[in-house]
Amino acid sequence: MARCRLAPNLPCPRRNPMDGYYINLDRSPERRRAMDAQLARLGMPWVHRFAAVDGAALAVPSQCAISAGELACFASHARAIAAPSAGGFRLVFEDDVEIAEDLPAIVQGFGLAQLEAYDLVFLDCQPQVNATAVMTLWNCLQTHRTDAKTGRVSGANIYNADSLYHFGATAYIVTPAGRARLPGLLQQALNEGPALPIDLWFARMGHEKQLRLAVIAPFLATPTLASYAASTLLERPAAPEEIVGMNALRRMFFAGPWEPADTYSQAWRAQRHSDDPQLNLLTALFMKMTARGFVAEATMAMKSGLS
Hints:
Structural class: alpha/beta
CATH topology: Spore Coat Polysaccharide Biosynthesis Protein SpsA, Chain A
Helix content: 25-40%
Distance between the termini: 28 Å
CATH architecture: Alpha-Beta Complex
Number of helices: 10
CATH class: Alpha Beta
Order of helices and strands: EEHEHEEHEEHEEEHHEEHHHH
Radius of gyration: 18 Å
């Protein structure tokens, strides 16, 4: 596990061996405006829009096991990763992401060299639902958080993804090694007809040791909680209770305000377990999600509807 402290914000790409894209559909101009405003506020204007493949106009090959929306998402990520540039590292965001105020400084604080041992470094994920993963993320958050109200942090840790990552491709860094390795693997998957959505494909490739995956925590980005209901994937169902719980749990470990998770998951509020309201919600979420059959049901629901 590697750690970093905050470093000065270095938004200029000439001083920062990194470029970046956010993936955005032509039919989602409001998301484009929101992303451009957020990136400008954070001093990251070097992260540019990347036009997404639209599943609404995509024919799904017969050998493909995923939906048109999932195939378009897969192809969009593949193209964003493979796009040429002079940068060594690449940030990739989906356009429904909320970015932590401290992301630019923390990423620089790693000096990037510490990331070179990996191919992909996730800035957020749906974590595995077990005591080890949840306590690792909770203790990491408590170590680095400097303000309980804003969620601001003083640093972060890098963890191997094996024990934490379940799924999610909202925000990640592709290292130089990953930029050399991933395009061929992704094109092969597309040629064969992907068997899994892009994030579950990442997870499988990591499990099979074809990719070296890591997770930075506290999470430096997270999906906006409104993004599930307003998804640009086609035919996504309304969020069932299981997905609400998983989305809220994911938000709990974000380096930003946690209260939106509390509002989003009001039905999950349970008896008081401590004087810390965030810990109360975490306890309620974990108790429910470790109930028999819950995780399997939630994962199936996510697989059928989430990117």
